[in-house]
Design a protein that fits this description.
This protein is α/β, with parallel strands linked by helices and 255 residues long. The protein is globular. A 7-stranded parallel beta sheet has the order 3-2-1-4-5-6-7, with helices on both faces. 45% of the residues lie in helices and 16% in strands. Helix 1 crosses helix 9.
């Protein structure tokens, strides 16, 4: 088993997808501070490079790659290049996700928008998993974490595409986890409520108010809180939990 996120351990890579901004950027920097060698991946190559450079300036180890989860031909080569630079991938943190159009009732949902959201949020998760699983199987060790949403458990009004894609992602994680439960690979999901990210800040205020009103703590989660939970889930310490969806909801989740 890999030694974990120790500063002296540079033989394994932690892949963070969506590392260019938001939760992905925060998680990449947090993991690097814990000693992980981080592959920063984003469809915006400049943003990925900025994240990697920030990590290196802080004394960490990171490389950047451009890949789009909707174009699977870009994903596997990026993973291979990161593995050649940093070592085999021991952990995948998938933060790639979009909300699509919001404040739209189901009968008004544009099917092209629905398909685009599902292609990134759900199909993209499978594409990424398929890219890293062969390396993890050869190591007999791995950690995969897909960032879902509390909307995938409860459904958010006016967010049919987003809620459906995140619910599908939770189901995907449950299924894949059982496939690899005896291999040393764990596959889990994280279901945040409202976290203060650029994506959330771009939502209509009515949508944010609707989601925040359901949080018993009456506040949004912070990037520091989500990063710390991500780091534990993809660490060797989280060894007997797979197929699970961790909540980060300020008390909102009830199951």
């Amino acid at each position: 088993m890999p030694a974990g996120f120790k500063s002296s351990d540079r033989s394994y890579a932690t892949l963070v997808v969506g590392a260019g901004s938001g939760i992905g950027r925060a998680a990449a920097e947090f993991l690097a501070a814990q000693g992980a060698a981080v592959g920063c991946v984003d469809r915006n190559g400049d943003s990925a490079q900025e994240a990697a450079e920030a990590i290196r300036r802080a004394g960490g180890q990171a490389v950047a790659e451009t890949a789009d989860v909707t174009e699977e031909a870009t994903v596997a080569p990026a993973v291979d290049r990161i593995a050649r630079s940093l070592g085999p991938v021991q952990a995948l943190v998938n933060c790639a996700g979009v909300t699509g159009r919001t404040n739209v009732k189901a009968h008004e949902v544009d099917l092209a928008d629905f398909d685009a959201v599902c292609r990134i949020n759900l199909r993209g998760a499978l594409v990424l998993s398929q890219a890293v699983l062969p390396q993890m199987l050869s190591q007999k060790y791995g950690r995969i974490l897909h960032v879902a949403s509390i909307a995938g458990k409860e459904g958010n009004a006016g967010m049919t595409a987003y809620s459906a894609s995140k619910a599908g992602l939770i189901g995907l994680v449950k299924s894949m986890a059982k496939d690899y439960a005896e291999t040393g690979i764990t596959i889990n999901a994280l279901a945040p409520a409202v976290i203060l990210t650029p994506m959330v800040e771009a939502l209509p205020q009515a949508t944010v108010d609707y989601m925040t009103a359901k949080i018993p703590m009456r506040r949004c989660g912070t990037l520091e809180e989500v990063s710390a939970m991500i780091a534990w889930i993809v660490s060797p310490a989280c060894s007997f939990t797979t197929g699970f969806t961790f909540d980060l909801s300020g008390g909102r989740a009830t199951f």
